[in-house]
Amino acid sequence: MNPNRRFKDEIYDQFSRIGKAVSSPKRLELLDILCQGERTVENLANETSLTIANTSQHLQVLKNSRLVEQEKKGLYVVYRPAPMVCEFFLSMRKVAENRIAEIEQIKNRFLEGKKGMESIDRDALIKRIQKEEVTILDVRPPEEFRAGHIKGAVSVPLKELGLMLTKLPKNKEIVAYCRGPYCVLSVEAVQLLNEKGYHAVRLEEGVQDWRAMGLPVASGE
Fold first, then answer.
1. Separation in Å, CA 95 to CA 22, 83, 220
2. Most exposed among 19, 20, 158, 212, judged by the fewest C-beta atoms under 10 Å?
């Protein structure tokens, strides 16, 4: 074989390892979750409705393609995305959103008839956050909030929202967000809040979107 041809074939073969690794819907979901913060196999299995064995197999594929890294912490092994992977995932998601019409159709069908799901004017929201005119709720699990959250947001995990209702103001609009446009935690939160008499809306963007737009993101409690 021509050396030039061999070089090209070998290079593109290596590139294709990334494509093969992200060809599984479940592995894409795992990457999406890991971009919110490091997790254990058990956490990921619970989030994706997979068995621990299947989750481990998917993680091994991602690890072999250098898309995720692992580290032993005490009794557990935690996984996190490798550098640049979250930016890659977000770019891939945006290409899909722009090129595949079915994505918008599926989303609209799911959100149809649900109150508080309208798009929010992001610039107006930022000004209202600065003036403390709205309450921003991060309804993801606490570990994801600690890893990174919209500056000014309050951590109220969805499973604790019912117990926290009396502490939320009814005279302010509540804006709930989670992992991004395809996360259903904020959908459930907004539905519950509106049913209980609050004025709640959903912010479609998640922390990764916020960071990519150069907007303020904080970490810690």
1. 14, 20, 31
2. 19
User: 21-50 pLDDT, tens per residue?
Assistant: 999 999 999 999 999 999 999 999 999 999
Whether 178 is a known active-site residue: answer yes
Q: What is the tens place of the pLDDT at every residue in 51-60?
A: 999 999 999 9
Pairing label, strands 134-138, 154-155: parallel
Assigned CATH topology for domain 109-218 = Oxidized Rhodanese; domain 1 (3.40.250)
Indicate the CATH number of 3-86 among 1.10.10.10, 1.10.510.10, 3.40.47.10, 3.40.50.1110.
1.10.10.10
Between CA 27 and CA 148 the distance in angstroms is 22
Point out the catalytic residue in the list 35, 86, 178, 183: 178
Q: Given a cut of 80, is residue 131 above it in pLDDT?
A: yes
